[in-house]
Amino acid sequence: MAAPAPKQEELQPHAVRDQLPAVSYCLTSPPPWPEAILLGFQHYLVMLGTTVIIPTALVPQMGGGNEEKARVIQTLLFVAGINTLIQSFLGTRLPAVIGGSYTFVAPTISIIIASRYSGIADPHEKFLRIMRGTQGALIVASTLQIIMGFSGLWRIVVRLLSPLSAAPLVALVGFGLYELGFPSVAKCIEIGLPQILLLVALSQYIPHLLPLVGTAFERFAVIMSVVVVWLYAFFLTVGGAYKNAAPKTQFHCRTDRSGLVGGAPWISVPYPFQWGAPTFDAGEAFAMMAASFVALVESTGAFIAVSRYASATPCPPSVMSRGIGWQGVGILLGGLFGTANGSSVSVENAGLLGLTRVGSRRVVQISAGFMIFFSILGKFGAVFASIPGPIIAAIYCLLFAYVGMAGVGFLQFCNLNSFRTKFILGFSLFMGLSVPQYFNEYTSLAGFGPVHTHARWFNDMINVVFSSKAFVGGAVAYFLDNTLHRRDGTVRKDRGHHFWDRFRSFKTDPRSEEFYSLPFNLNKFFPSF
């Protein structure tokens, strides 16, 4: 017997939503305090990955040992807590964690290998000199975001963003970090793979198999899975599983090889100029400014993803510009305190909003409190920071995927039957993956980037810009979307521009006041447009 014909309503496509449904706690609705504190600790645990990985890679090259590495991690954590609080109160007011950024690693390495530091024999003195050089470059680079944000220049750029050009940008902010996912998991597959499997099981399967307690597993899957796999890794370590393993395997798999617990002080409060007075070099400052501009673009995509998972309306351009200005202040703080790294929106924490379905601002503010608390109590913070890297990378596999899918979700506003849409979307995604792949492959083989002139600062500027997948893909999509067949009457609807019209100004949608207005009636003194 033939199946009955589907009803007319069943043939209709899914409705377009300005705000993401099925979010348990949106931007302005905090969970109960016990739950909020646990969720805040989970955000702290997730952001530790980048906070530890970057100094672990940079500090030994700078000449520092475990003690310097622990202090840099503490400082980066302390500044991240301050920046996250500033962003949640005075910036975009979104639940975005502002932490370290991989974008700033390349110009920092360029400073490390500068010829003027090569003759310093004492490792500690070399570390201090290089740190002061990075501080000076970060202080200068921060002015780019501060000026573009607070002057409103970035507001003009964001106003021309449509769902079609936002989709590749946001998608590549997440998917573009694939190198930090399974390749890092595979460095110790016996703990990385169980972490992926357990996290998927706890967050996706258990909530449907056990509906009565499923919500707890869904929201706290990261904490539960990390505790189980971390204990498993600990037992492998004390049981002698890696006793005769290669040094690299021991470094990635063992739970006692980070050197952070022994190097961290019991109590230490980071303070400005703790490494000494910053030094300035024009070429290094220009290279760091290029990284700052790339981080600005990537953070814009991450902010858009955060607003989506917080079930807020699209962020008005004036609010986005305000957030970028305060992010510039965050980079300035990094330069003053000496973090050896700039600041941007934490992509992994943006993905955690999607995994937990909790987009509450209060949760992220609590996580900022944990960052500051554990940065001061060094030994306790170092215990959590010593989680093996493959466990963190396994978590990234899910969280980066969520951010990437936030970008794909914006295609609901676009006409996917339009050949213009297909070209812009496909070409920008392809170039966003292909161009950085060429730059990265060339650098790994030759030891320097494709642009290799006598001006090292110019080389760094070009190589940093074209090594970012989100920047290249987003820039291509933005240019094509704003220049290709603009006068065609159907293009406006095809690119989804009309869906975002009421969010291009702060006052044209009443929900903007609820989500993005400043506290303590500060909007009277700092109005949004």
TrEMBL record:
Name the source's superkingdom: Eukaryota
UniProt protein name:
Nucleobase-ascorbate transporter 6
What does the sequence similarity comment in the record state about its family?
A: Belongs to the nucleobase:cation symporter-2 (NCS2) (TC 2.A.40) family.
Record keywords? Membrane, Transmembrane, Transmembrane helix
From which organism does this entry originate?
Panicum virgatum
Topological category with respect to the lipid bilayer? Multi-pass membrane protein
Q: Which GO terms describe its cellular component?
A: membrane
- Major localization listed first in the record, in broad terms: membrane
Query: So where does this one cross the membrane?
Result: 41-60, 72-90, 96-115, 136-154, 192-214, 220-242, 363-385, 391-411, 423-440, 460-480
Q: Which InterPro entries match?
A: NCS2
Q: Per its record, what are the GO molecular function terms? A: transmembrane transporter activity
**Coiled coil: which residue ranges?**
none
Subcellular location(s): the record lists: Membrane
UniProt keyword Transmembrane, yes or no: yes
